Amino acid sequence: MMDKPGNGKTGNLNLINNPILGKILFPGSEIQARISELGKIITTDYTGKDLLLVSVLRGSVIFLTDLMRQIDLESSIDFISISSYAASKNVHATGVVKITKDLEDPIEGRDILIIEDIIDSGLTISYLVRNLKSRNPNSLEVCTLLDRNVKRIAEVKIKYAGFTIGDEFVVGYGLDYKQNFRNLDSIYRLNTTVVKKDIALMDT
Ligand code: IMP
Ligand code: MG
Predict the structure, then answer these.
(1) Average pLDDT across the chain, whole number
(2) Residue 201 above 70 pLDDT?
(3) How far, in Å, are 82, 115, 145, 164 from residue 161 at the CA level?
(4) Which of 106, 113, 189, 201 lies 20 to 30 Å from 167 when distance is taken between CA atoms?
């Protein structure tokens, strides 16, 4: 099944014909090939360990489900949801983050790999790393599909990254614009002439 039709917000247009979408930055096939490479590296690195993949809701879910099937090891998954206060106030990121849905299980002694969709300022992930480290895992590393390091504010150690991108807003393959477009197979640039004002106001 390829990219699905829209949800009605855009009238009769199919999702991929939406004028908000710009060029494809990473086609689905390229994403899958990279995930297969990452899966092999992670399999080697975590052999003999107690791997728990922690997916940060909601953007990393698609990445998680593909990546975990490329890891040839016994492993488990869990989910955490966080919100930054900045997101709700439409001001620039403050680094004030709170957990809105916590992990189901304790992580003490386990080997934690945080799965993110994109790391931008790094404020969200650095909060999460600090919080999870305080629970005494055996190890804790970060795996992100996209690394946009041009606007990094907080220092973050990213052990695994799919692709590095520049200063452009992207959607698809889990990443959203106003909660839409997550179900595209490929990663697209947004058509900034259509949504310029909105993006300037967003905290990401
Ligand atoms: P950070 O705290 O600035 O690193 O924010 C990272 C979060 O912002 C990601 O987990 C995404 O949810 C969101 N985000 C940042 N850039 C983009 C983008 O280009 N498209 C969609 N979401 C984004
Ligand atoms: Mg996110």
Answers:
(1) 89
(2) no
(3) 21, 10, 5, 7
(4) 113
Residues in the chain: 204
Is ligand 1 within 6 A of the CB of residue 82?
no
pLDDT classification of 121: cutoffs 50, 70, 90: very high
Longest CA–CA span in the chain (Å) reads: 52
Best probe residue, ligand 1, of 60, 96, 118 (max atoms within 8 Å of C-beta): 118
Q: Which residue has the tokens 């957990």?
A: 99
Q: How far is residue 103 from each of residues 42, 55, 111, measured CA to CA in Å? A: 22, 10, 14
Place of tokens 């909105």: 198
Please list, in sequence order, all residues whose beta carbon lies within 8 angstroms of the beta carbon of residue 33, skipping any fewer than 6 positions away. none
* pLDDT at residue 194 in the model: 76
